[in-house]
From TrEMBL:
<dbReference type="InterPro" id="IPR001320">
    <property type="entry name" value="Iontro_rcpt_C"/>
</dbReference>
<feature type="region of interest" description="Disordered">
    <location>
        <begin position="1000"/>
        <end position="1022"/>
    </location>
</feature>
<dbReference type="GO" id="GO:0016020">
    <property type="term" value="C:membrane"/>
</dbReference>
<feature type="transmembrane region" description="Helical">
    <location>
        <begin position="698"/>
        <end position="716"/>
    </location>
</feature>
<dbReference type="GO" id="GO:1901701">
    <property type="term" value="P:cellular response to oxygen-containing compound"/>
</dbReference>
<dbReference type="InterPro" id="IPR015683">
    <property type="entry name" value="Ionotropic_Glu_rcpt"/>
</dbReference>
<dbReference type="InterPro" id="IPR044440">
    <property type="entry name" value="GABAb_receptor_plant_PBP1"/>
</dbReference>
<dbReference type="InterPro" id="IPR028082">
    <property type="entry name" value="Peripla_BP_I"/>
</dbReference>
<keyword id="KW-0472">Membrane</keyword>
<keyword id="KW-0812">Transmembrane</keyword>
<keyword id="KW-0407">Ion channel</keyword>
<dbReference type="GO" id="GO:0015276">
    <property type="term" value="F:ligand-gated monoatomic ion channel activity"/>
</dbReference>
<keyword id="KW-0325">Glycoprotein</keyword>
<keyword id="KW-1133">Transmembrane helix</keyword>
<dbReference type="InterPro" id="IPR019594">
    <property type="entry name" value="Glu/Gly-bd"/>
</dbReference>
<feature type="compositionally biased region" description="Basic and acidic residues">
    <location>
        <begin position="1000"/>
        <end position="1011"/>
    </location>
</feature>
<dbReference type="GO" id="GO:0009611">
    <property type="term" value="P:response to wounding"/>
</dbReference>
Length: 1022
């Protein structure tokens, strides 16, 4: 049915696309400020919302604004029965002329309502649905240990899953009832119901168990049905256990009474993401059924891929029950996409049909990669052996299967299975068996806690039951919450491994087998574990082996190829890649667009050489970007790549942060930073050239250091060393001579004290460094042409106010303004080398510039024949040129590898010599004016030497004070203290320090002898 309305309304054009979305959607972007807001922009995208027509008896909005109808009356009646007040107002959704989309209304409710209102909405929906359910009698309370406990089970008997889980659950019930260790005298009974409908009708059938005194329900089979039924189960406190509803968005927060007894699809998608990353692929195509199971599973896959820096390039949705024509149309679109990695998250119903169509379209050939979720392995396990045509359709496919560890229990069940049925054993049968045992253990624990199996009517439902809805039969499980806790606390070993739930209600230790379909069956190429990723060993063997990273066995891919597919090709639509090339007015050696449209230059030759090294053909055409008169902006070229105007950008495109946010770049093929070029003049010879290596400050500090070190050595050596004694004039001459002779390591005076030797060693090391640096700098000054300029580098330009030239259309302007804070009024755009030359010659006084800032690669070309200009200062950024591609383009990676290969084999240098090698100007042998050596380069050495001198003097002083105290008699010292002033005592100490050590010792010895004689004479007199 087509929707053909096309009119202009208050909201603009009302017209529907083929997918029933309104054309030309748009949003205002508002910023709340103060008491209002302001518009900061707009967002546009061609998408819309769906609409359905409804009868006015269902819901109607009158001209006076009154809203009435069946739905409204039911809603008001339900709210009036609530035990609390719910203030509300009815708001019309839609224009009143065209029927609005209920899906959009539901989306708005979901994003705006509280969880309580969300639950009430679903519960009211179920009350209406339950009108079709047969009614039963009054509330019934069963004893604490009833003879029979009923469990409901809802699935389709003749489905792929249904025909194995019925056998498995019957076997489990038989084993539970035969086991004396569980349930004691209570018999477990499963009431199985065959669901024969899909969609809406499948929702009604599970509701029959809501009024049949079942303590739990196993099922439903489909995620779509489980999602709706779980809302009702939450209200009735009846646990829902499902091993086939694997929708990853069914969380315990939203569905507290829903329990998944198999692995969440979130882990399966994580396994697929690890496989994609393992083989180095970056993009995949996802084919899925457009229902909750498919849509949410693929959303989880997209999240997991993004964590690996990969993505889904195309989400190909099919109707839940597609026709062969639907599948054919979709696969044709998939074949036209670039990615050849196809993930199929399909239904059991149409999955094999998709592979049949793919084979007919030639999509099961070499180069393709097909990854199927566990639906395919379930089909192979259950219906094996498959027909020959079917198995041929899936050759080379990789599929996953829920991993169940080997055990004696499992082996015994496998042997028993062949006696129970001729149908193959799938993992769903194992999980069905374990689910029954899990419930049995939970029931046993529930009874041990004193729980009773009792049901009561909800008073709200009872009041509504007197009307037309007849809802009396729906009863609430009184012990539902306690029973739910018992289920979540189960911890047992089953056929599928350990059955225990995590805090988010997932089974512990999720794992998958990775299978490769080969011949008439499949081979296991590895395993995936949540804690370790891909491995070629099962979990029980990995416990005794150190983990050695991700690994899989070799794979036979579609087309019987064993070579790992590249994973992408160019779109098979005959279109050549449009490569944007900046049409610049300057430096034709880099890139040039001729009058006949031919594009040449260094950048173009590098790109063509790299493309020729790729192992596949790349059809492309070079398209000039710009008018040829004004230099275009490379940033704008990169932006056009992101919008699809160009498929890549080739040229002198500098890799900067702003551009890397918009596109992917290859490995840089030219290293080029920003430099400053300015007019220079040659320095003439000078008689004082030997003073140039050091700055005046450096000369001053060096000279002072010589004198200070000489004085320190004299202090340390004067008392012990005769070479530093004598008349004052001689001592001064000796000190000066010693200090400056250390410059040439030719001092003849020897140091005898340990402190003096330490200071001298440190000082000689400082002299060695200074001497070597001076010699190297002076050699450069005398042998290399020196050029001088008032501009010393970018620092000079930052401090003065002279105009600065920059290349028009370059990122240099933004860098100078935003990073270096140079005012934009000082910047002068220049288009060509000729304009560079003229602006530099004119200078600031004649309307020119003081200097030009550009990339080194350009400046080297500019200076090749202009000796009157030169590079001043140092290169102050580090950038490179690269080729730009759209984000996540696999071609960027391959071209990067080709560029590295060009560098390794020498082709890159040959291309560079062809275009960029020019005869250098005779004065370009050196940078501008060799930098003079400044104090900041040596201050560390001077600090170390100064600290050594201070410490040596301090230690020396302490030692002298100590010796002075030891060599002077106590009595004499006391007499001196009594008779002398402090200045006299200091003078005495200085005299002691000045006195030669041998003389001091001799004097001290004589004084002690005199004291002894005097003491002996006094004793005789007495």
């Amino acid at each position: 049915m087509r929707l053909i309305v096309d009119r202009i309304g208050l909201t603009a054009r009302i017209k529907f696309t083929r997918d029933r979305n309104l054309v030309n959607p748009a949003f205002d972007l508002l910023n709340v400020i103060g008491t209002g807001y302001r518009t900061i922009g707009y967002w546009h995208l061609r998408s819309g919302v769906a609409n359905r027509y409804k009868s006015e008896e269902v819901v109607s909005v009158k001209s006076n604004g009154r809203i009435s109808g069946f739905c409204v009356d039911v809603f008001i009646a339900a709210l009036n029965l609530l035990p609390y007040a719910v203030p509300f107002e009815l708001l019309a959704f839609g224009s009143g002329h065209d029927n609005p989309s209920n899906s959009e209304l539901v989306r708005l409710i979901r994003t705006g309502e509280s969880p309580e209102i969300e639950k009430m909405k679903w519960f009211l929906l179920m009350l209406i649905i339950c009108n079709a359910v047969p009614l039963q009698g009054l509330t019934k309370i069963v004893s604490a240990r009833p003879q029979v406990v009923n469990i409901g089970s809802v699935f389709t008997f003749n489905s792929l899953i249904g025909k194995v889980i019925k056998v498995a659950m019957d076997a489990a019930v038989e084993d539970v009832n035969a086991s004396p260790s569980i349930l004691n005298t209570t018999t477990l009974r499963i009431i199985m119901h065959d669901t024969k409908y899909n969609g809406f009708m499948s929702i009604m059938e599970p509701l029959q168990f809501m009024e049949s005194e079942t303590v739990a329900i196993i099922g439903p089979q489909r995620s779509t049905t489980a999602r709706v039924v779980a809302h009702v189960a939450t209200e009735l406190k009846i646990p829902i256990l499902s091993f086939s509803a694997t929708d990853p968005t069914m969380s315990p927060l939203q569905f507290p009474f829903f329990i998944r007894t198999s692995q969440n699809d979130l882990f399966q998608m994580a396994a697929i993401a690890d496989i994609v990353q393992f083989y180095g692929w970056r993009e995949v195509v996802a084919i899925y059924g457009d229902d909750d199971y498919g849509r949410n599973g693929v959303a989880a896959l997209g999240d997991r891929l993004s964590e690996k820096r990969c993505r889904i390039s195309y989400k190909a949705a099919l109707p839940p029950a597609p026709t062969r024509e639907n599948i054919t149309d979709l696969l044709i679109k998939v074949a036209l996409s670039e990615s050849r990695i196809i993930v199929v998250h399909a239904s059991f119903i149409w999955g094999l049909e998709l592979f049949n169509v793919a084979r007919n379209l030639g999509m099961m050939s070499t180069g393709y990669v097909w990854i199927a979720t566990n639906w395919l392995s379930t089909i192979i396990d259950t219906d094996s052996p498959l027909p020959l045509d079917t198995i041929n359709n899936i050759q080379g496919v990789i599929t996953l299967r829920l991993h169940t560890p080997n055990s004696i229990m499992k082996q015994n069940f496998v042997q028993r299975w062949h006696n129970l049925t001729h149908v193959g054993l799938s993992t769903y049968a194992l999980y069905a068996y374990d689910t029954v045992w899990l419930l049995a253990q939970a029931i046993d624990d529930f009874f041990k806690k004193g729980g009773n199996v009792s049901f009561s009517k909800n008073p709200i439902i009872s009041e509504l039951g007197g009307g037309n809805l007849h809802l009396d039969a729906l009863k609430v499980f009184d012990g539902g919450k306690i029973f739910l806790e018992s289920i979540l606390q189960v911890d047992r070993i089953g056929l599928t491994g350990r059955m225990k739930f995590t805090s988010d209600r997932n089974l512990v230790n999720p794992a998958f087998d990775v299978l490769n379909v080969i011949g008439t069956g499949y081979t296991t190429i590895g395993y995936w574990f949540n804690h370790s990723g891909l491995s070629v060993m099962p979990a029980d063997e990995m416990e005794n082996t150190s983990f050695s990273g991700q690994k899989l066995h070799s794979v036979v891919w579609p087309g019987h190829s064993i070579k790992i597919p590249r994973g992408w090709v160019f779109s098979n639509n005959g279109r050549h890649l449009r490569i944007g090339v900046p049409n610049r007015y300057r430096f034709e050696e880099v890139v040039s667009v001729k009058s006949n449209g031919m594009i040449t230059g260094f950048c173009v030759d590098v790109f063509i050489a790299a493309i020729n090294l790729l192992p596949y053909a790349v059809p492309f055409e070079l398209v000039a970007f710009g008018n040829g008169h004004d230099n275009p902006s490379n940033s704008e070229l990169v932006r056009l790549i992101t919008t699809g105007v160009y498929d890549a950008g080739v040229g002198d495109i500098t890799i900067i942060t702003e551009r890397t946010k918009m596109a992917d770049f290859t490995q840089p093929y030219v290293e080029s930073g920003l430099v400053v070029v300015a007019p220079v003049r040659k320095l003439g010879s000078s008689a004082m050239a030997f003073l140039r290596p050091f700055t005046p400050q450096m000369w001053l500090i060096a000279a002072a250091s010589f004198l200070i070190v000489g004085a320190v050595i004299w202090c340390l050596e004067h008392k012990h060393n005769d070479e530093f004694r004598g008349p004052p004039r001689r001592q001064v001459i000796t000190t000066f001579w010693f200090s400056f002779s250390t410059l040439f390591f030719s001092h003849r005076e020897t140091t005898t004290s340990n402190l003096g030797r330490i200071v001298l060693i440190i000082w000689l090391f400082v002299v060695l460094i200074i001497n070597s640096s001076y010699t190297a700098s002076l050699t450069s000054i005398l042998t290399v042409h020196q050029l001088s300029s008032p501009i010393k580098g970018i620092e000079t330009l930052q401090t003065n106010h002279d105009p600065i030239g920059y290349p028009q259309g370059s990122f240099v302007r933004d860098y100078l303004v935003h990073e270096l804070n140079i005012h934009v009024s000082r910047l002068v755009p220049l288009r060509s080398p000729e304009e560079y030359d003229k602006a530099l010659r004119d200078g600031p006084g004649k309307g020119g510039v003081a200097a030009v800032v550009d990339e080194r690669a350009y400046i080297e070309l500019f200076l090749s024949n202009r000796c009157e200009f030169g590079i001043v200062g140092q290169e102050f950024t580090k950038n490179g040129w690269g080729f730009a591609f759209p984000r996540n383009s696999p071609l960027a990676v391959d071209v990067s590898a080709a560029i590295l290969q060009l560098s390794e084999n020498g082709d890159m240098q040959r291309i560079r010599d062809k275009w960029l090698l020019r005869k250098a100007c005779s004065l370009q042998g050196a940078e501008i004016e060799v930098d003079r050596l400044e104090l900041k380069s040596f201050w560390g050495l001077f600090v170390v030497c100064g600290v050594a001198c201070v410490l040596a003097l301090a230690v020396y002083t302490v030692l002298m004070i100590r010796q002075f105290g030891q060599q002077c008699p106590e009595e004499a010292e006391g007499s001196i203290r009594r008779r002398s002033s402090p200045s006299a005592r200091i003078h005495s100490f200085l005299s002691f320090v000045k006195e030669k050590e041998e003389d001091a010792k001799a004097r001290s010895s004589r004084e002690r002898q005199l004291e002894d004689i005097s003491a002996n004479g006094s004793s005789r007199c007495n």
